[in-house]
Amino acid sequence: MVILLIPLLLPVLTAVAYLAAGWRRSTAWLGAGSAAVVLAAVVVLAVQVLAAGPRTAVGGLLRADALTAFMLVVVAAVALVACAATPAHLRGEIAAGHASARTATRHTVLVQLFLAAMTLAVLAADLGVLWVAVEATTIITAFLVGQRRTRAAVEAAWKYVVICSTGIALALLGTLLLNYASLHAGSGAGLDLAALADGAAGLDPGVTRIAVALLILGFGTKAGLAPLHAWLPDAHSQAPAPVSALMSGVLLSVAFYAILRVKVIADAALGVGFARTMLVVIALASLLVATTLLIAQRDYKRMLAYSSIEHMGLLALGAAAGGPLATAAVLLHMLGHGLAKSTLFVGAGHVLQATGSSRIADVRALASRSPVLAGCVAAGVLALVGFPPFSLFASEFALARAGFANGLGWATAAAFVLVLVIAAVLVGHTSRMLLGASTAAPGAAPAPLPLPIGAATTMVLALVGCAVIGVGAAPLAPLLARAADIVTGTP
Amino acid sequence: MSEALLTQLVGLGAGAVLLTAVLVLWLRELAVVIRVFAAQGVALAGLVAVLAVHEGSGELAVVAVGVLVLRAGLLPHLLRRALSAAEGERRVTRPLVNVAASLLAAAVLTLLALAVSQPLVALAPSPVTAAIPVGMAVVLIGFFVLVTRRRALSQLTGFLLMDNGITAVGFLTGAGVALIVELGVFLDVLLAVLVLGVLTGRMRDVFGRTDLDELRELHD
Asked: Where are the domains of chain B?
């Protein structure tokens, strides 16, 4: 199936093109063009999967069912936002002397390979290939995180690689043990995700329990979930803006997708209780970490990073609740969060380029200095805290309803109290940045803040997209329903 | 290969892997630690070779050679290169926990591994799977080294120790993981070490040394 290979191979080809031609005026928009083609291809793929069932390619190594198709849409949509914001970001970095044309070339090559690795992760039919792809994202992004070569950037890159590689090593151990259980179940499923889910009842519960615990912990590390979340705020605040947008917007969700796939197998082999208990504990711990560290936060990029931990915690809560409604809400939340968070990171990147500081206290009166940027940041934060019409309102509402309906009343209540606190904190920090008294001398008009037209268009379109899904998710509904069926194990 | 000989050879290989892991905890000189790590690679490759002969599997024999080249040759070489670039820096580890306590912790971790691995051995009791707890113990000891060492290179050895343990478990569980996945795993470990090697170099450029105590820039 050619259509399956386009989202995988096109970024690789684009990377090769950037490697050959370098980053220059004529190639600046190549990445965005490639991302647009990929988005179109995955939409076609999603329609085909809905009409004719799962598609496979490369001798069954790649497989696209409804869940994969939806994840491909999430990856492609956020990739388009990040790639469209890249030219303006890199021009700004080069103008400020933070980057050279060579750094820019390396940035674009690595970003395209990063996209290919994430696509491979969601397309993989085999847990082993999925593991390899997720580990590959760590290796590829390591140098993107450390791109600026400052003390802070190198420190963030080191923590990122060590913690994520350790976490993912636990997932490897889990994968090997699951393979061991599968070997002795005698179904010949190996590590094939679909076959494992079908034959999960025959897996040895003792071994599967250890394997699932390691897999959830391991992929949870990569998804920024507690207790191994310490790398996330550092890496997301030090990476260049378009890379932060991708890491926060989709990489976390891709890792969470791996947890969803593991959960299907765990639920069938061990009953729903095991994975549910683990996920509830992880979800509440993540929300608690995010809340406590957000309250006194002084850095706006770290603020956005902790908000990502919050949203991953919500995804874990939804996955714990289980059932079709919660699962569809989890998936919709991934898309909405991806669009809103990538917009905010792109916006934060421009604020950083203009002010040279990522401290909240150093940014004041943004609304009068750049109304468009301030408007996008305000809308993005409102989307993030779950205001309608943005889709996060719909998904958080559904998550809360499903949580109460599926016997997680106390956990859901506690989680949403934390979510409300975080919402208040986020709005408070942001309004200080947008409104606040200008730091310029009294009487002097605050210096206007330049915002490239390309970046402005990207952010507005991403937010409009987030709102459109929130108002009318109807075209997505069949895909969401079918994907939720896969996660809940109803054929 | 007779059952008794197999039991002895697997026991020997697994014992050597565990012993080297404990030695890493005990030794302070980084150059020696790297040599011990290479010895562990040889023991691991030997273990895989025994399994290859036992099962008469050509593929496994090729993998054994791969393990030998990667874990006894390439990775120690990369570590040594990173170490020699650190000339002038004190070449001893500075663990947060002293040696006696570390060794005690290793004993506790080994017991823990033994307890946790019960279901793993029970699934398919055989001389080969009986050694699984050893692999798990090496994983836990590696994790312990990773969190209690402060020098970047020592953390790296902890990570690699963990990885050796995972590899051991992988082979002892008779995992016929597809060759493509195994290649991917090999490549990923190699690349992760290369990336970390480059980052240690950069850390030296910007911090002057690779002591993680210096990593104080980012916190909340």
From this structure: 3-205
